[in-house]
Amino acid sequence: MSTAVKAASAEKNERIAPGARAAPRERILGAAAELFYRHGIRAVGVEAVAEAAQTNKMTLYRHFSSKDELVAEYLRREVAQAELNWERREAECPGDPLGQLRLWLNDMARHVASGDDRGCPLSNAAVELPEKDHPARRVIEAYKAGVRERLTRLCAAAGLADPDLLADELFLLLEGARVTAQSMGAHGMGERLMRMGEAMIKAHTVPSPAAVD
Hints:
Elements: H1 3-14, H2 24-39, H3 46-52, H4 57-63, H5 67-92, H6 97-113, H7 121-128, H8 135-157, H9 163-184, H10 189-203, H11 209-212
Helix pairs in contact: 1-2, 1-3, 2-3, 2-5, 5-6, 5-8, 6-8, 6-9, 6-10, 7-8, 8-9, 9-10
């Protein structure tokens, strides 16, 4: 195991309070999520995950039939968290699709601006897992398609022109911003993402009749 992975494992173990240990399956998934995201799926073996989860390979394989299935379940949990974030946006801006869209844009800008952000875990996984028959690929492809469809629905509900195109523009803006933040640094990236996103929304805003007159 590399020094970086060992350090992450030790850090993970220190956060487990005595008497408050989670069940083995939850510890395994928590350790996998942290290690896979920080170091990459290919770079982290099941031994490292088991050690970080304070368990062993036998227990890991009792809960997950293979590393591939562990990866797929890790990504399903990421998708579930993303769904909770959409529910939060709906609760904060009920009946306001444009407000929800802007909340999403603000959340994404904050993530991109964070020096701790390594991009979208599902996009990262897609790069590492090109095999179409990998169980995680179905999770990734369904999630990405779902995000684009949701953006299209919000753009349409907000009365913005050409909602399909705007959804593509916003989606590609975010994907590109996350990659750029990794290669060139995140300084100022969140602010630029917000400005560009708002400019895209403005370009698709249908003028009111009064404004036309």
